[in-house]
């Protein structure tokens, strides 16, 4: 007689972490111990990796290096200086259905801040905070070797998610910053990174300021029926 499958509680530890994690864009001025950051990164590296290649690097940007990078990025943003990105994230052209999700996410963010749809200056100032790593105590730049195939981005993405969940488990918050990928040459020049490193994203990490209105932003996920099918 086959034993019935023993199911985990309705909400296990992983599910609780996944549901609690959200993009945080305002942090407390409380430093993150270096030993804790190293522990989080070591845990994140346990993510699955094809052939155990473990692609990608994390650069903690501090002190003068951070000031230099932030200043260069903010100036480029204000001057509307375009750069060729190292990789394409968004589909071009953007399909209508995906465009609706993008608009909904923006509405959730600026709605939490009370920034009106027609307030271009207010939106630009908020977007510029991406380039300041939202003033988080930890600012990470994430890169990947240019000669990796597309699968390397998949592995690195799993590692990034592992990092954010590991941080959540320690009471920390995070926000991935795709905007950094818009200025790869500036990032490499400001930090002295080799041309062989493609800029993937930034990551802000620290203790959440729970009182900040921006951190009330929430986005909805697609229902299961939209992305899961059973084929028989």
UniProtKB/TrEMBL annotation:
Pfam families registered for this protein in UniProt: Nitroreductase
Keywords of this entry: Flavoprotein, FMN, Oxidoreductase
Annotated Gene3D superfamilies: NADH Oxidase
SUPFAM superfamilies: FMN-dependent nitroreductase-like (SSF55469)
Domain of life (superkingdom): Bacteria
Domain Nitroreductase: 19-207
Record bears the keyword Flavoprotein: yes
Descriptive protein name: Nitroreductase
